[in-house]
């Protein structure tokens, strides 16, 4: 069943969009990521203009993340205080990111910059996470291996304005938490992602949060940042396609519940290496699209004044 998307100005199979939303929803529930790092490139691949893909799928992230976080609330694996501090930084970062997106759009470079950002961030984060997770799995398989508790002391303990996060069992400075949130907020607006693929590793390796509360806390923060980003894009850049958003949203909500069930059955190292593998595959596909000669060297686009 083909459906016309008025803002994207293309016709796409509705069941394909539902399926894409479902896949990303599963990722959301499994890994604590909004799934935008995967969904936005997939929308590129099926012909959705990058600017519309970025603005619209942030809306889908809200639904899939909300569905996923409900499951984590039931298991009491959400640190609300940590999520709120991350959110404070995320809102500021999202506002800055939308302004950057607007400037790039006016320059006519937004499509190229979005894709370059994906190659850069997905490549670096995916590679580092894959190597670390692979080493962790190898160590755990050794017969003489004794699990070593990760040090809870680090540079986050040397900064002022310390706060106690009881659910995470941490007493650290709020400054790096806000900075992480702000950085993810910028990425959310510019790249059309929830920022979970950056947020989750940062929470584990920089803030030293326990893995069991990272997923739910990340989803909690993503809900509000993605919602704010959607509103900003809709009112500033006019790139939110409601029809596309609804189809992705329906699939995402269903998928998130399935993903949260799968997450309980896998070990932390297995979750991280699966996420890293998917990040690297998407990165490679985008890089190839940028490097290979396109089928059509020229395209005609109409610029609409709003």
TrEMBL record:
> Coiled-coil region(s) at which residues?
none
Species of the source: Mangrovicoccus algicola
Q: Where in the cell is it found?
A: Cell membrane; Membrane
Which PANTHER family does this UniProt record tie to the protein?
MEMBRANE TRANSPORTER PROTEIN MJ0441-RELATED, MEMBRANE TRANSPORTER PROTEIN YTNM-RELATED
The record's listing under Pfam families reads: TauE
Q: Which family does it belong to?
A: Belongs to the 4-toluene sulfonate uptake permease (TSUP) (TC 2.A.102) family.
The record's principal subcellular location, in a coarse class, is membrane
Full protein name: Probable membrane transporter protein
Quick one: signal sequence residues?
none
Family matches, as InterPro entries: TM_pro_TauE-like (IPR002781), TSUP/Inactive_protease-like (IPR051598)
Q: Which UniProt keywords apply?
A: Cell membrane, Membrane, Transmembrane, Transmembrane helix
- Give the stretches traversing the membrane: 12-31, 37-59, 80-101, 113-134, 168-184, 190-207, 214-236, 242-264, 271-288
Q: Could you name the Gene Ontology cellular component terms for this entry?
A: plasma membrane
Please give, as recorded in its UniProt entry, the membrane topology of this protein. Answer: Multi-pass membrane protein
